[in-house]
Structures are given as structure tokens and as C-alpha cells.
Amino acid sequence: MKLLVAAHASELVAFEDHLPGFERLLTGVGKIPAAYALTRALSTGEYEEIVVVGTAGAIDDAVEGGIYDLAGAIQHDVKGLDGTFGEHVSLPTRVETGHDGLVIATGDHFVDDADTVRRIRELGASLVDMESYALIWVAQQFDVPIRILRAVSDRAQDGATELWDDVVERCSHELRAEIRTRYGV
């Protein structure tokens, strides 16, 4: 059995309630709700793979719309003891999925301004979201493979918050088609 994970119900609007071979988990938005929900699920069930679907903002001009696999994640809303942006006091700077793909910067606020995008881009990320780092870290603690598929919903610039509300359904349909192609369901 695989675990299909999304943060927000609107990211799953195109998915049937019951997908053969998958159980569904809705985590809630942000790193703490994501970590909590996935930890509970992995503590009570056994899964061969975690498959995360959802949206992300693009911060790299070379990244167009579409679906992207993630190779790893960093955190854009932390600082190390020495004040280094993007480093956590005790967690790894970057966590890996084991797949080829893009690097995403995770943080607990919706990125929607050019100044923040420039600062995050310097960390080496191409996308931004609010859960991926936490989900990868928890999956590693339980030694369960994880794949994260992100649909680009916006350019993470001024006005992105309003844009997300308009495009999340389209992104959900793109993600559903990708799951059908990759997993045959």
C-alpha cells in the first residue's frame, strides 16, 4: 500500500476518494501540521512508498508550469546559531528524496514577493512550498521511500496568494493525470 499525501483538500479535488493501492492523508498546511500528520500515519500503518502531491511556487525563471519531481528540500525560514540564512540549529541543511529533480525551499509562510524570492533563490532552490522539507525528514526517520510531485501554481511574486486560489484546481487535474501515468491508477 502507498500513502497519497496532500496538504490542502483543494489539491486533491481531481482525485477519487478511493484510489486503488493508495490510502489518503490530508496533513494541513505548513511544516508542523505536515510532520505531525505524517508521523501519526507512519506510526500506525505500513507503507511501501509515500507519494506527495501538491502545488509550489516557481522562483527560478527557467522553471515553467507543469509537474516536477523533487530531489531535495531546504528550509528558507530558519537561521543557524551563527545567523546563516537557510541553516537550522540541529536539522540538516538539505534533505533528499533519492530521486532526480528540483530542489524546493520550504517555509511556514506563503512566498509572494520579489525580495523574498531573490533571497530564497540564493539558497539554490527552484521552487517554494510549505511542507516538503518536513515530509522528507519524517519519511527518512521511518525509512520509507518518498516521492514528491509538485505542480507549479504561480511565480511566487506579488499577488501569488490570490493566483493560487484560481489555479489550484487545474494543478490538481495535472497531478491526477501524472499519478495515472506513473502508477497506472
From TrEMBL:
Gene3D superfamilies, per the entry: Nucleoside phosphorylase domain
Pfam families named in the record: PNP_UDP_1 (PF01048)
UniProt domain Nucleoside phosphorylase: residue ranges: 26-172
Superkingdom per UniProt: Bacteria
InterPro entries: Nucleoside_phosphorylase_d, Nucleoside_phosphorylase_sf
Name of the featured protein: Nucleoside phosphorylase
Source organism of this protein record: Microbacterium phycohabitans
